[in-house]
Design brief:
heterodimer; A: 562 residues; alpha/beta; Rossmann fold; FAD/NAD(P)-binding domain; 5-stranded parallel sheet; 18 helices; B: 413 residues; 2 domains; 22 strands
């Protein structure tokens, strides 16, 4: 039974599209006119006031304004009574009454009637979409650094089964290596303790070799001491982190004693803070060199963490040995935000000297076996300054791990020129191209511990949402046919349908055999849309011929709709 | 869903979380909380969701249009059944009895009730003062949903012709503000930022923003040069001459103990984005960017800056001290030449001053004694972030809150 709820829009629609004329143009439709259907209440009132209530199997079209204006609200009300697939909207205001206000009334009514018939045609063909319940419900977090720990901890707290795979014997990542964290100088160990892994299945010493999409889930090959185990997961969080670049012979590292990396200084400071070493092991005249092997043509990126780390370690050094002199040679101090800028100012107050150098390649480290001095490039007036030094600390950037490249390849994720994994910047930065795959931490790009934690938590929420929504049955109407299939006789094998689909969701081999899709049935229709041969078919979608028939343009319009 | 301004406490579930501010961070927090099963009341001061990002033309580092992703978020908030969107709502304070918080909210309903307006335009045709607007004049496109005509109160003389013409009786020119006190289980602040205006403590008058027509703030400039207002050739706001030279002045009032002591983190990239779009649309323009430290942390951002330099954006590492109208025409900028250390002056046709962005206040974030209340914060009001950072922080705040309420006792989160 076809029912059309016609909204008179307080007279603004009925004045241009008279109800009687519409009724005449749609003889097979039960037309119910209402003063307004703008909100759920008025819509409900109309339905309740009917002397002859609508049968539950009715197909209902609301003829009103556009979905963006008010139409959606009438639809929402109808969906309380009727199944999703049985109600639709015909926009006869913005799409008909307004643009054709000057036209002949008969034409206008015919157009509105065609729009309404078209909506019925859509309903005729539409079926409930069902999302398959998946066999894999759990989430896999790859990498047990601060991002991965926060993600796993959050997922467990939300009640999602979660597995954390960490390559090293214990989780913690950078939290195991760093002593204190900027900007609040809290202990890394305390932060680690604040990320409990209760309820998390921890696979320490396990390397995730590859993750592939298989039958609607991710199949991860996890290697540990005993061998390789395949496991299935519904969602994957990639938190493989990043690793420090080594100074690589620059500024006398490796050849001169006293040239160390920022990481080594961090370790030394932590040892002194713990009391494991005495303060006399600390340098007394330290020169920090920023942007070593960073922001050059080989690594054209700013690593985000090195400037705050340098300021943090300068402050720690000053706190442990107040007489030490610390000079930071920088191209720019990248200390954005409230907390970091305050830390930078604090360092200046504490007597840390910040010197701007345009090109670090002009800086020379001098010494004979041990570091003795650092010579700066000439200033505009030709003066050359030489800094007395017993320690040179090179701040190097972080770069992506080999695991990131391996996962990007097997999972079909995008990476930028440097190898950092790309999400959908800027509105959905943690969502990757892979189905149910989320990114967090320094695998995206170098992040502070606090940022990494936040990203881990956010990725966990997204994964939990994904798993929950994916398994939500939309309607209880069975529809067991294939989602899409290929008419082999027409297929040229060009593969455009495969490219059009989400990566990993569908394989050529399956495309060649109908049914196309043993995968989750997304019924997105992308394959049918790009197929140049008309070989990919999405059952349920009206063909152009059917649409024409619904419009009454075909000589035999009764074919489906009469 | 859109809430009526007359919201009574009985309509709210006792588990409702109040999100203050409907920008990217607030919307993401609300959507995530709702998806995790927590009902949300999203209070937004303006007539639409989307916050400052809705006013942007493009977003870095992708140079994509800012509108679509933000609009789809806003749409999701309007569509979510357990997110109540309360527009025109100012959260004025909070009180708490230990277990729950009571939010004092003042709603200023617009003269035209958006839930009744048919957007038919009859009011527009009868108004002699042209006081009825189809869109917010500050925006290139009005993102209010549902679409509603609005009254420009500066022009309206209250004749009432529109009231009589409206077929839906949606117009009432004498609507009073409504004060609500609503109990909520928890609060998330996502109030974002504002550009300092004259009179604000963050406003630095020596840089001339809001005093000369050719001196723009960053957000004004975004609307002025943006895609949707595309002008073939940029012309000055003062006398309509073609613009040839544009300067961007960074840290004009930011990182300055007298005004805003912190770095707003986004202005360097934002200015470079505007500079690149200027060069892209009008390659012959001379664009200069005065900076203190060019802060572009992150992989794609450094590449973005380098591309800008390649495209001919001139970078000068100097902090101008004075910007004012030049007696020779145009706007004069005085700065110290970094190569020589001498003071020089240059004239520009348009100057964009990035005077820092002031974090919005958090109503009721501390109690009567001044000690802070344990409510979550996300987005710019917590720590300066860009769009991506705000989106992440919004979801992360929702995660923390969800864990807090999942594990009421002994939870380490």
């Amino acid at each position: 039974m076809k029912v059309c709820l016609f909204c008179a829009c307080m007279g603004t629609l009925s004045s241009t599209l008279p109800e009687a004329a519409l009724r005449e143009a749609l003889p097979d439709v039960r037309l119910i006119a209402a003063d307004r259907l703008c909100d759920a209440a008025s819509c409900r009132k109309v339905l309740e006031s009917l002397s002859d209530p609508l049968p539950p199997h009715a197909r209902v079209v609301v003829a009103a304004c556009s979905r963006g204006a008010r139409g959606a609200q009438a639809l929402a009300c109808l969906k309380e009574t009727f199944p999703l697939f049985a109600v639709d909207l015909a926009d006869i205001r913005e799409a008909c009454a307004w643009p054709s206000a000057g036209a002949d009334q008969r034409e206008r009514v015919a157009q509105a009637a065609a729009l309404i018939r078209m909506a019925f045609a859509r309903l005729e063909r539409s079926r409930a979409e069902r999302v398959e319940p998946e066999s894999a419900d759990g989430a896999l977090v790859i990498g047990g650094g601060p991002a991965g720990m926060a993600a796993a901890s959050t997922l467990a707290g939300l009640g999602v089964p979660v597995t954390l795979a960490e390559r090293r014997p214990a989780p913690g990542g950078m939290l195991n290596q760093l002593g204190r964290l900027f900007p609040r100088m809290e202990n890394a160990a305390d932060v680690k303790a604040s990320l409990p892994l209760d309820g998390v299945e921890l696979l320490a010493g396990s390397d995730v070799i590859a993750v592939r999409r298989e039958n609607g889930a991710w199949l991860a090959e996890i290697r540990d001491a005993k061998g390789v185990t395949p496991r299935r997961f519904g969602a994957v969080i990639v938190a493989v982190g990043a690793q420090p670049v080594l100074p690589g012979g620059k500024f006398g590292s490796g050849s001169l004693k006293g040239v160390i990396s920022q990481m080594e200084l961090d370790t030394l400071l932590s040892a002194v803070e713990r009391g494991a070493k005495t303060p006399d092991k600390l340098p007394s005249r330290a020169v920090f060199i920023q942007c070593v092997n960073a922001r050059d043509d080989a690594a054209p990126y700013c690593s985000n963490v090195c400037c705050p780390t340098a300021v943090k370690n300068a402050l720690r050094l000053k706190a442990l040995s107040p007489d030490a002199s610390v000079t930071v040679l920088n191209r720019q101090m990248v200390m954005p935000g409230v907390a970091l800028e305050a830390m930078y100012r604090n360092a200046m107050r504490e007597g840390v000297r910040f010197l701007h150098v345009d090109d670090m390649n002009d800086v020379r480290v001098e010494g004979d076996g041990t570091v003795q001095a650092v010579r700066l490039p000439a200033s505009p007036d030709g003066a050359i300054e030489t800094l007395d030094a017993d320690c040179v600390v090179c701040s190097t950037p972080l770069r992506p791990t080999p695991a990131a490249a391996r996962l990007a390849e097997s999972m079909g994720l995008r990476a930028d020129g440097m190898g950092f994994l790309l999400g959908h910047e800027p509105a959905h930065p943690l969502e990757s191209d892979g189905e149910g795959t989320f990114l967090c931490g320094s695998a995206r790009w170098p992040a502070f511990v606090r940022q990494a934690e936040d990203q881990g938590r956010a990725a966990a929420v997204m994964a939990a949402r994904y798993l929950r929504e994916r398994r939500m049955p939309m309607d209880e109407i069975p529809e067991d046919g294939p989602a899409a299939f290929i008419r082999e006789a027409r297929c040229s094998g060009c593969g455009r349908c495969v490219d059009a689909w989400a990566p990993g969701a569908c394989h050529t081999a399956e495309l060649r055999n109908s049914p196309l899709d043993a995968q989750p049935r997304r019924r997105c229709g992308s394959c049918a849309a790009v197929c140049p041969c008309g070989a990919a078919v999405l059952p349920g979608a009206p063909s152009p011929r059917e649409i024409m028939a619904a419009l009454g343009a075909n000589p035999s319009p009764q074919r489906r709709l009469a | 869903m859109l809430s009526s301004p007359h919201l009574s406490p009985e309509q709210l579930s006792p588990r409702t979380v109040l999100v203050v501010g409907g920008g990217v961070a607030g919307m993401q927090a609300a959507l995530s909380l709702a998806a995790l099963g927590t009902p949300v009341l999203l209070a937004e001061r303006n007539a639409h969701l989307g916050g400052q990002v809705m006013r942007l033309d493009k977003v870095y580092p992708t140079d994509h249009c800012a509108f679509c992703p933000t609009w789809s978020m806003a749409k999701a908030c309007y569509d979510a059944p357990n997110v109540r969107v309360l527009l025109h709502a100012d959260v004025t304070g909070l009180s708490t009895d230990g277990e729950r918080a009571f939010a004092a909210i003042e709603v200023r309903p617009p003269a035209i009730d958006p839930s009744a307006c048919l957007f038919c335009g009859k009011c527009e045709s009868v108004c002699g003062k042209k006081a009825l607007l189809r869109r917010d004049p500050r925006m290139t496109w009005d993102p209010a949903l549902p679409p509603s005509v609005r009254v420009d109160e500066t022009r309206c003389d209250g004749c009432g012709a529109c009231v009589r013409a409206c077929p839906a009786q949606a117009i009432d020119l004498r609507r009073e503000p409504i004060s609500l006190t609503l109990p909520v289980a928890d609060v998330v602040y996502a109030t974002g930022f504002e550009e300092p205006a004259p009179g604000d403590p963050g406003y630095a008058e020596e840089f001339g923003a809001h005093t000369h027509p050719d001196v723009f703030t960053a957000m004004e400039f975004e609307a002025w040069h943006g895609e949707s207002r595309a002008q073939d050739v940029l012309r000055t706001r003062s006398d309509g001459r073609p613009v040839r030279r544009v300067a961007f002045v960074q840290c004009a009032g930011a990182r300055d103990a007298r005004h805003l002591s912190y770095c707003a983190a986004v202005c360097c990239m934002h200015a470079m984005k505007q500079a690149r779009w200027l060069k892209r649309r009008q390659p012959e323009l001379e664009v200069t960017l005065f900076y203190t430290d060019l802060r572009a942390p992150g992989a794609q951002q450094e590449t973005y800056m380098r591309a800008g330099q390649r495209e001919g954006v001139r970078l000068v590492r100097s902090r101008p001290g004075l910007i004012k109208e030049s007696p020779l025409g145009g706007v004069g900028v005085r700065y110290e030449d970094p190569a020589t250390g001498k003071g020089v002056g240059e004239r520009f046709d348009a100057v964009v001053v990035n005077g820092g962005l002031a974090q919005c206040r958090l109503p009721g974030a501390s109690d009567e004694t001044g000690s802070p209340r344990p409510f979550a914060r996300c987005g710019f009001c917590d720590e300066p972030v860009d769009v991506a950072g705000a989106a992440i922080q919004g979801v992360a705040a929702a995660a923390k809150l969800a864990l807090k309420h999942h594990r009421p006792e002994g939870g380490a989160a």
